[in-house]
Q: What sequence folds into this?
């Protein structure tokens, strides 16, 4: 016995040391990929990459509010200047002419390789005549003023043609030389970070750099007079940064607050610091082992898993409470041997029931859920084992907590009037079911929320602000896009060109409003070569030109710069992505190409013919099939991500039901009586149904996290029900007051832990808290009412 | 004698100022306008002037439509600070705020049609000659930057009718818009 007493703590310390080492060296992920699939299909893979690392994920929208228009415009210019010099940003655009000037240089300098009007026929006599006549017409219009100086070198109007092609995406309004919202009340900038959107640390730095630039810009403004300016930021990176901060803050604060409250509770009950410290040993061990198990099992730990760390306090602290309260002998010390013989099997069964519940999360394709499952299982097993084998060895001689049976007796007195009513059990059942039915009938929408956004840690207010900025910038969210990919950037661009050509008939037929194409910014090398080859030499061009302008009001002699530029283009190197750098077009281009480890994806966002109208993706697919582009993927981002989540939800519900079945089987094996199993399960089921009904009545749509919460109700509540069941069995009867006391204390700690989660600002934590806190309490109440009703019959 | 001359000059100016305001009031009172136009553009790069013709429509205070029928159809609509050009079945929208150099070309005509003297004087140095029955406005941009693309706009008219708009550019290019009441449909 002595050897064993020494062995368990030694082993425990070794395990703790190993776990600490693993936890210290583990990799922690704080992006939102916990909500994205672990084993995606190719389409899902693209979707996940879009959400995590796509160019859109690198956009930061900057708004400057309040103050007066002039101050906003000056601040916008100052911020853009500062950020353009910062390597963290690949592009910064506020609509100012700086970028516009570079854009014009890029387009004009490479016009004969970039313009899709360039073909051999374009430079024939009739082609030149038509193009030049058209340009002369343009001169007559107000915009012609801008073209007049270009005419001698660009008589065929390539510049205007390219601007037209690129101008199809709407540009923001301008006031004072910078982008503003439509009403002019807010200056707007768009910055694109060099780092990926999923690199939350880099995004945090970028956000800090923008805030610093704003502070510097506002310092430069003359003080007084106008009200001070206000900075607003939005975008995926900004959201990720604030969500991480929120989750970390919530996890840390709530864990500390929950821990403190539980310590206070335990101290109030035990009145002994030693007992409190010992009581927390299983909790701490469980949390440590849980994180270590996740790190070992998954290679990395999601921040959100740590956020749930508090959930473990709720259940694992119960074990030591059961132990200390029910092992207290009449003499006031702790009778471990008797406890291990009579009470431990029940605690063990309760623990195994919880493990069955959480095991149902393990096969989930949702890394966040699978991690939560593993974390809870390993944490609970560790906490139970520490309670059983380590805690007894650690107890000082003669250790015993004060008598709490009076508390139990008081609770029993409270329950007595209700228990006397023999029909109360049925009435309870009927009432709960009726309430649930009513709740489901009364509510308007479906019970389950099947949209991915339901899990988003971003508040609805932030999402509205973001949508507002995007609408102002004309960068409305694209829902449908075509993705083609090739081994090189150039091959992807070539496929993008073929895709755009295949979709042209649909644009003409007004099935589509337009297609954005990266090759509009940078054509593939093959296309550029074809265009370069179609440029005539100086002598034939001069001759064609002479004939073409014969009956036009222009002299061929005045067009010498044109002949020179065409000749220069014949010998110029092809345009590459490097030429785009420094232009505002680079942002547009970067937004449409997405490198992977060994492939390049080209994205072609589709615009609806009428804004806000759905796109007929079936016709898009048919057009691509017809053009022998079967490898092109048509992606409906929202539908795809919602389908993904709905799939998870369905899977999780199915797995939870399987978990429920496993629990039933386990209880059947352990209790060997269908009646006892029913008696244990009924209060749990009722608690879950009541909470569901309550949430539905409050207008809450259920998400995955509510489902996890229900599992937790079953996990925690099964302990209560099993204790009452044990109490009802005649040969195991102990003091009912002791049972009640340990359960009430355990329940209070659980309700405190989860109740605190409800005050978090993170929606997923709120979902968990509002489900488990009332659920655990109800499970205890129902279990108490049910068990006693049976016992009085016996 | 000198004093008399001075007095007469002052009186003439006063009358002119009076007439200017009166013309502006007459123009402002007109809510709609519909005229035919012939436009000639004399550009140095071209051997011959470009000639076009069509109709002009005006709705107070800021909608102006220029519907060219010859030699090629083109529809140009100014509304709410946006210039929409439609030709060859293709629409192009120019936000005038983004093209400050185009703005005075259009604003000169729009503000005159609207009888908006203060709008004119915000952008131009305005000189009024003649009287209500036969008047002439010469507009010279106040902004140095604008002077590089636009030398002056001269608008001739009588009462609330515009007859002729001539726009001169510093490089010698100019355009001449001749207006006459539309033939009854």
A:
């Amino acid at each position: 016995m002595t050897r064993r007493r020494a062995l368990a703590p030694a082993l425990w310390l070794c395990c703790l040391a190993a776990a600490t080492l693993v936890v210290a060296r583990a990799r922690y992920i704080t992006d939102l990929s916990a909500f994205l699939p672990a084993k995606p299909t190719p389409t899902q893979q693209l979707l996940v990459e879009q959400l995590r690392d796509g160019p859109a994920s690198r956009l930061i929208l900057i708004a400057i509010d309040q103050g007066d228009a002039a101050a906003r415009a000056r601040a916008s210019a100052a911020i853009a200047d500062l950020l353009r010099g910062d390597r963290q940003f690949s592009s910064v655009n506020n609509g100012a002419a700086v970028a516009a000037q570079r854009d014009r240089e890029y387009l004009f300098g490479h016009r004969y390789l970039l313009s899709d009007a360039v073909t051999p026929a374009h430079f024939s006599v009739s082609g030149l005549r038509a193009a030049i006549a058209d340009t002369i017409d343009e001169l007559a219009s107000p915009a012609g003023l801008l073209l007049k100086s270009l005419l001698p070198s660009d008589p065929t109007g390539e510049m205007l043609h390219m601007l037209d092609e690129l101008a199809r995406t709407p540009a923001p309004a301008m006031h004072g030389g910078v982008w503003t919202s439509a009403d002019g009340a807010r200056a707007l900038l768009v910055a694109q970070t060099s780092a990926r959107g999923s690199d939350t640390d880099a995004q945090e730095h970028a956000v800090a750099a923008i805030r610093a630039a704003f502070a510097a810009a506002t310092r430069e403004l003359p003080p007084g007079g106008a009200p001070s300016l206000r900075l607003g930021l939005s975008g995926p990176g900004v959201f990720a940064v604030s969500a991480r901060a929120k989750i970390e803050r919530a996890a840390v604060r709530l864990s500390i607050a929950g821990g403190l409250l539980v310590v206070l509770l335990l101290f109030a009950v035990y009145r002994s610091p030693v007992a409190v410290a010992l009581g927390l040993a299983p909790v701490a061990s469980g949390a440590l082992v849980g994180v270590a198990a996740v790190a070992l099992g998954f290679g990395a730990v999601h921040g959100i898993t740590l956020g749930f760390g508090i959930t473990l306090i709720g259940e694992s602290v119960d074990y030591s409470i059961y132990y200390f309260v029910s092992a207290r002998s009449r003499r006031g010390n702790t009778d471990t041997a008797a406890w291990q013989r009579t009470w431990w099997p029940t605690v063990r069964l309760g623990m195994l029931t919880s493990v069955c519940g959480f095991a149902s999360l393990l096969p989930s394709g949702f890394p966040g859920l699978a991690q939560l499952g593993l974390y809870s299982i390993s944490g609970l097993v560790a906490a139970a084992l520490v309670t059983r084998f380590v805690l007894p060895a650690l107890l000082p001689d003669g250790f015993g907590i004060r008598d709490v049976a009076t508390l139990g007796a008081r609770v029993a007195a409270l329950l007595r009037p209700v228990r006397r009513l023999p029909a109360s059990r049925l009435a309870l059942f009927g009432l709960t079911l009726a309430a649930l039915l009513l709740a489901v009938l009364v509510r308007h929408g479906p019970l389950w929320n099947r949209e991915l956004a339901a899990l988003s840690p971003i508040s609805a207010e932030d999402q509205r602000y973001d949508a507002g900025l995007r609408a102002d910038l004309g960068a409305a969210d694209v829902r449908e896009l075509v993705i083609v990919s090739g081994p090189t950037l150039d091959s992807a661009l070539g496929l993008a060109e073929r895709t755009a050509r295949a979709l042209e008939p649909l644009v003409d037929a007004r099935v589509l409003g337009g297609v954005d194409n990266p090759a509009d910014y940078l054509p593939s090398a093959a296309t550029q070569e074809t265009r370069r080859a179609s440029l005539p030499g100086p002598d034939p061009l001069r001759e064609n030109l002479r004939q073409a302008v014969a009956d036009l009001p222009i002299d061929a002699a005045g067009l010498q710069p044109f002949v020179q530029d065409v000749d220069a283009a014949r010998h110029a190197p092809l345009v590459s992505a490097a030429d785009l750098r420094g232009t505002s077009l680079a942002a547009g281009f970067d937004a449409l190409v997405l490198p992977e480890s060994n492939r390049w994806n080209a994205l072609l966002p589709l615009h609806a013919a009428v804004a806000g109208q759905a796109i007929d993706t079936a016709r898009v697919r048919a057009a691509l099939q017809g053009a022998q582009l079967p490898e092109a993927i048509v992606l409906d981002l929202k539908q795809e991500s919602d389908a993904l989540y709905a799939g998870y939800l369905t899977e999780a519900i199915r797995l939870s039901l399987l978990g429920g079945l496993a629990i039933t089987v386990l209880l059947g094996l352990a209790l060997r009586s269908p009646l006892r199993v029913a008696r244990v399960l009924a209060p749990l089921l009722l608690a879950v149904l009541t909470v569901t009904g309550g949430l539905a009545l409050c207008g809450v749509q259920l998400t995955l996290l509510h489902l996890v919460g229900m599992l937790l109700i079953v996990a925690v509540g099964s302990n209560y029900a099993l204790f009452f069941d044990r109490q009802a069995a005649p040969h195991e009867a102990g003091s009912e007051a002791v049972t009640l006391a340990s359960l009430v204390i355990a329940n209070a700690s659980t309700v405190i832990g989860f109740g605190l989660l409800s005050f978090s600002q993170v929606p997923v934590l709120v979902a968990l808290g509002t489900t488990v806190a009332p659920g655990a309490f109800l499970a205890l109440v129902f279990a108490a009412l049910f068990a006693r009703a049976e016992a009085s019959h016996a | 004698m000198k004093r008399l001359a001075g007095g007469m000059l002052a009186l003439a100016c006063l009358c002119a100022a009076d007439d200017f305001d009166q013309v502006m009031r007459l123009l402002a009172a007109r809510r709609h306008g519909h005229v035919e136009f012939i436009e000639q553009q004399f550009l140095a790069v071209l051997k011959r002037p470009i000639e076009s013709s069509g109709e002009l429509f005006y709705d107070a205070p800021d909608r102006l439509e220029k519907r060219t029928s010859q030699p090629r159809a083109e529809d140009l609509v100014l509304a709410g600070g946006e210039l929409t050009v439609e030709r060859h079945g293709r629409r192009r929208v120019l936000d005038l705020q983004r093209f400050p150099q185009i703005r005075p070309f259009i604003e000169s005509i729009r503000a005159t049609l609207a009888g908006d003297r203060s709008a004119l004087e915000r952008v131009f140095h305005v000189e009024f000659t003649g009287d209500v029955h036969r008047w002439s406005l010469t507009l010279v941009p106040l902004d140095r930057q604008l002077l590089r693309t636009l030398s002056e706009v001269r608008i001739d008219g009588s009462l609330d009718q515009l007859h002729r708009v001539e726009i001169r550019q510093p490089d010698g290019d100019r355009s001449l818009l001749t207006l006459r009441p539309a033939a009854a449909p």
Q: What stands out?
A: Helices of chain B lie at 2-29, 103-114, 117-123, 144-147. The interface with chain A takes residues 39, 41, 43, 45-50, 52, 72, 74, 76, 83, 85, 87, 90, 92, 94-95, 97-99, 101-102, 105-106, 149, 173 of chain B (CB under 8 Å). Chain B has a mean pLDDT of 82. The longest helix of chain B spans residues 2-29.
